[in-house]
Specification:
By secondary structure, the chain is mostly helical. Helices cover 68% and strands 1% of the residues. It has 15 helices and two strands. Strands 1-2 form a two-stranded antiparallel sheet. Helix 5 packs across helix 10 and helix 6 runs parallel beside helix 11.
């Protein structure tokens, strides 16, 4: 337990802070959601025009800067990139499409369950299935090739962009868009959101917290270190919800959620599978980007574009349910991720080449 103590404490703090963000104004069961907040930022900078989800979320900015500060302090900042960047960009889009089908990232999936939303159980089941599929391809030699050392300024750019975005938010820049109703209009005060983001970013960087990594490592190596953080968030968020009176068990009438079990399941299968191929969940991608990993920064940009695509083309779900466009998009993404998995799995490629030689 000594080795797990830090990540259990970190998970507990993150779980409680997520509930407190709801107390301070964030939407219920959405104290912290990477997919939802990136979607809001996409709307806030005008990449989509859905009026109820437009706001520059300081929590995301804080995550990146918290990871950046701690990695610099511990001399872990390293500017690297060049590992199949466009493939990562496409996978970032696919993961976002899956997340907005479910209406939440893996972190919000846990927070939803901690708040009593039983639809999250199907999401978790799909998430685990997706991770199993991703692990299958890892065992077949899947990789997106090596990354390379880059000039330090390349790694600094993503944190700098986030600082600039925060300055624009503080200034009330007239070109930014702000929701007047709906989830985008519900937010904690700017400085509280930023401080919580900084704390979560620092803790996640220090402990290597990753929602997908916990299940992946348990499957591949029987290592439950990261999974301990995952479970700690669930337990402490549950306790926080009970104390504050937010716990509301059931399937129906859950905040910013729908009850279509099949597509909750399939959306998170896509998230789990794509995240394994990327080497981490959306939270982990932001932390890595803060540490100087430009491949993760490209993935985050893919997620931003994916959020815009979802709302510009009617793919995103809503409390009313899923859309036909969204269902078609998820199926297309499954096919796309399958192709990426097959093409980049060295053992499968070698077996295919060997068959061709034998046939000739």
């Amino acid at each position: 337990m000594k080795g797990k103590k830090d990540i259990i404490i970190a998970g507990g703090i993150i779980g409680l802070l997520s509930v407190l963000l709801v107390k301070f104004g964030n939407p219920a069961n959405m104290g912290f959601c990477i997919a939802c907040f990136i979607r809001d930022i996409a709307g806030g900078i005008g990449l989509h025009s859905t009026p109820i989800v437009q706001y520059i979320r300081p929590e995301i900015i804080g995550l990146v800067l918290g990871a950046f500060i701690i990695s610099m302090k511990n001399k872990e900042f390293q500017s690297r990139g060049g590992s199949s960047p466009f493939t990562r960009f496409i996978l970032g889009i696919a993961v976002m499409i899956g997340a907005l089908m479910f209406l939440g990232c893996p972190l919000r999936m846990v927070l939803r369950l901690a708040g009593g939303d039983l639809n999250a159980i199907l999401g978790i089941a799909g998430f685990v299935v997706g991770i199993f599929v991703g692990v299958f391809f890892l065992n077949k030699g899947f990789n997106l090739k090596r990354s390379y050392n880059l000039p330090k300024f390349e790694g600094y750019l993503f944190p700098i962009v986030n600082v600039g975005l925060f300055v624009l938010l503080l200034s009330g820049f007239s070109m930014l868009l702000f929701s007047e109703e709906g989830p985008g209009s519900m937010h904690a005060p700017i400085w509280i959101s930023l401080i919580v983001g900084l704390i979560v970013g620092a803790l996640s960087q220090k402990t290597r917290l990753c929602m997908v990594g916990g299940t992946r490592d348990m499957i591949m190596f029987k290592d439950n270190y990261l999974l301990s953080g995952f479970l700690s968030i669930l337990v402490f968020a549950f306790i926080g919800n009970l104390i504050l009176g937010y716990f509301n068990p059931g399937f129906a009438n859950q905040p910013v959620a729908h009850t279509d079990g099949l597509w909750n399941f399939l959306g998170m299968v896509l998230v789990g599978w794509g995240s394994v191929l990327l080497g981490g969940c959306p939270l982990r991608q932001l932390i890595l980007a803060g540490e100087g990993n430009t491949d993760s920064a490209v993935t985050v940009m893919g997620s931003l574009v994916g959020a815009a695509i979802c709302h510009n083309f009617g793919l995103a779900s809503s409390p009313k349910g899923t859309t036909t466009n969204g269902q078609v998009a998820v199926i297309i993404c499954f096919l796309l991720v399958l192709v990426i998995s097959l093409v980049n799995s060295e053992m499968l490629v070698k077996q295919n080449n060997l068959k061709k030689v034998n046939n000739n």
